[in-house]
Amino acid sequence: MPAEWRDFFALTKPRVMTLVIFTGLCGLLAAPERINAFLGFAAILCIAIGAGGAAALNQWWEADIDAGMKRTSKRPLPSGRMDRTQARDFGIMLSAASVGIMGLAIGWLAAAILAVSIVYYAVLYTIWLKPRTPQNIVIGGGAGAFPPMIGWVAATGEITAMPVLLFAIIFMWTPPHFWALALFVKTDYEAVGIPMLPVVAGEQATRRQILVYAAILLPLSLAPWWIGGTGWIYGASAAVLSGLFLLLSAQVGLRRTQEGDAMRPEKRLFGFSILYLFALFAMLVVDRFALTP
Ligand code: HEM
Ligand SMILES: CC(C)=CCC/C(C)=C/CC/C(C)=C/COP(=O)(O)OP(=O)(O)O
């Protein structure tokens, strides 16, 4: 069966990338300089195309691994709807187009960070770290932390403390986000030999690590307000959201898996992690528009 446009769309991991694109948009809108709407739209489109290209390259490389896991076995490559060369060429084309257009239309600093994040996800994380170390997502998660910085730099043309803090927030958020999920789909990764932390270091170590990252995330998420980069609306929202995130992480971090466990706290934490990042970045923009004339 030949690949349809739907398969190419699926190859960009659209659901996961909504949050990547959203944080990029928030970085762009929260920046102190306002960019013209047409260029702003072009910048976000480039982030979306670049993230989609990187996701396609990730699946080109991981076709065999995806075939071995229930969660990923219906993706276009493992289900045989597309061949690997098509996925690779599509990924390269999107990646190159996104960086080229970003550079020409917006600026080469934003384009360079976009290029770094694509290589980070497709090569550093997927090809190098993921199959080798249980710290894969801690280091590799950096790729997903770049979009707000790209958005910010697209608007201002420079890297200041604020975009670095936004990067750091997503960097610290990624381990609890992913390890909560890895606790309840652990068997999948075991089957294909990917050294995810629960498989290699055990559940208790993973639970403790989740709590450590959530505890660091709380003060870190307040830092943009602390350094005067945002107003009280963001500060108060970050305190509430990160407090809740820490609470849910503590429920996961301080328990043990029981016989026949439904893993409800882990599923709740994973679900909340997504809501958390959407809400935190939305409040950054609300703060900016409500408090800055
Ligand atoms: C290396 C770091 C990360 C890993 C290993 C990871 C892994 C995963 C996995 C396995 C899922 C399950 C669902 C699926 O495959 O569709 C998922 C869901 C999700 N992830 Fe992540 N993630 C990471 C970083 C991020 C980042 C940085 C973002 C956005 C800023 C993000 C946003 C999401 C969203 C929105 C979902 C839900 C998708 C849905 O509703 O189906 N993830 N993540
Ligand atoms: C702008 C730009 C390039 C952004 C990149 C965004 C990025 C790195 C997002 C990470 C989210 C993601 C799909 C992780 C999946 O990990 P996995 O691929 O190990 O998950 P899988 O087991 O579902 O394949």
Give a concise summary:
The chain is mainly α and 293 residues long. The chain is 76% helix and 0% strand.
**CATH topology term of the largest domain:** Tetracycline Repressor, domain 2
Sheet with the most strands, sense and barrel status: none
The low-confidence runs, each spanning 5 or more residues with pLDDT under 50, are: none
Order of helices and strands: HHHHHHHHHHHHHH
* CATH superfamily caption of the largest domain: UbiA prenyltransferase
Explain this structure.
This protein is an all-alpha fold and 293 residues long. Helices cover 76% and strands 0% of the residues. It has 14 helices and no strands. The chain has helices at 5-10, 14-30, 37-61, 63-67, 84-106, 108-129, 136-140, 147-156, 161-184, 186-192, 197-200, 203-226, 232-253, 264-291. The longest helix is centred in the C-terminal third of the chain and has 28 residues, at 264-291. The site of farnesyl diphosphate has 20 residues, from helix 2, helix 3 and helix 6. Farnesyl diphosphate binds next to helix 2, helix 3 and helix 6.
List keywords for this structure.
Tetracycline Repressor, domain 2; 76% helix; cell membrane; binds protoporphyrin IX containing FE; binds farnesyl diphosphate; Four Helix Bundle (Hemerythrin (Met), subunit A); single chain; mainly alpha; 293 residues; Protoheme IX farnesyltransferase; UbiA_prenyltransferase; 14 helices
